[in-house]
C-alpha cells in the first residue's frame, strides 16, 4: 500500500514546536531510522555530511538530559530525543564519501580526484571555529528536514538549543571533534502548540 503524505506547504504550515508530549506514546527505533535516513538527503558543505545523531529513548538518560536543559518538560515526555552532533573534523570522511559517489556512477574518476584534492586542501587547514560554523549550518539543514519528515508522518517535534552542551558532551563521552548542536524532541503532541506570528515579508526581504 502506498503511503500518502500531505502537500509540502500543508506540512510546513502544520509543523509547530510542541512542548507537551504524550509520555505513553512510543515510536519504534526502526521508524526513527527511516526518518533520519530521509533527512540525510539534505545538502551539506561539499557533501561532507558533518552531522551525527544520538537517538535517546532510555528514560533515565532523558531524565539526566532534562537536568542540564533547564528542566524542559519535553525532554522527559517525548518518545525520543534526537541529538544532532556536528563533526568538526568532517575531512576524515572525504575519501569514503567521494569514492562512494564514484562507485554510484555520479562522477567520473578525473573529477572525483579533483574534488578529493580540493577538499583535502581546504577542510583540514580551515580554522576550528570555521569548521564548527560549517557543521552548525549543515546541522540546521538536516534538522529542519527531519522535523518536516516527522510532521508528514504524523509526529511532532520541537528543536532546542538551550542546553548545557559541555555537560552533554561529557555525559555521552563525545570526542573533542564532536560538538552537540541541537536536541530535537520527537513524539505525539498531548496539547496543541502555541501559535506564532512572523515578521512581514516586506520588512525582511528586498529585491535588487
UniProtKB/TrEMBL annotation:
Keyword Oxidoreductase: yes
Keywords on record: Oxidoreductase
Highest taxon in the source lineage: Bacteria
Gene3D superfamilies hit by this protein: NADH Oxidase (3.40.109.10)
CDD domains per the UniProt record, alphabetical: MhqN-like
Domain Nitroreductase positions: 12-188
Family: Belongs to the nitroreductase family.
Protein name as it appears in the record: Nitroreductase family protein
Species of provenance: Sporosarcina jeotgali
Organism ancestry: Bacteria, Bacillati, Bacillota, Bacilli, Bacillales
Amino acid at each position: 500500500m502506498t503511503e500518502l503524505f500531505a502537500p509540502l506547504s500543508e506540512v510546513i504550515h502544520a509543523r509547530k514546536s510542541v512542548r507537551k508530549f504524550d509520555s505513553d506514546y512510543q515510536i519504534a527505533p526502526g521508524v526513527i531510522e527511516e526518518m533520519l535516513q530521509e533527512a540525510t538527503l539534505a545538502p551539506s558543505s561539499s557533501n561532507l555530511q558533518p552531522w551525527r545523531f544520538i537517538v535517546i529513548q532510555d528514560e533515565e538518560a532523558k531524565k539526566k538530559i532534562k537536568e542540564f536543559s533547564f528542566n524542559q518538560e519535553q525532554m522527559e515526555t517525548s518518545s525520543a530525543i534526537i541529538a544532532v552532533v556536528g563533526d568538526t573534523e568532517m575531512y576524515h570522511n572525504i575519501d569514503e564519501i567521494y569514492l562512494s559517489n564514484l562507485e554510484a556512477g555520479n562522477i567520473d574518476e578525473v573529477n572525483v580526484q579533483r574534488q578529493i584534492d580540493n577538499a583535502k586542501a581546504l577542510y583540514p587547514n580551515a580554522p576550528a571555529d570555521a569548521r564548527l560554523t560549517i557543521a552548525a549550518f549543515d546541522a540546521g539543514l538536516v534538522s529542519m528536514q527531519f522535523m518536516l519528515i516527522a510532521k508528514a508522518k504524523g509526529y511532532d517535534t520541537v528543536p532546542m538549543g538551550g542546553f548545557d552542551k559541555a555537560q552533554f558532551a561529557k555525559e555521552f563521552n563525545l570526542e573533542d571533534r564532536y560538538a552537540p548542536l541541537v536536541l530535537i524532541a520527537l513524539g505525539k503532541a498531548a496539547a496543541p502548540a502555541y501559535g506564532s506570528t512572523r515578521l512581514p515579508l516586506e520588512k525582511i526581504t528586498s529585491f535588487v
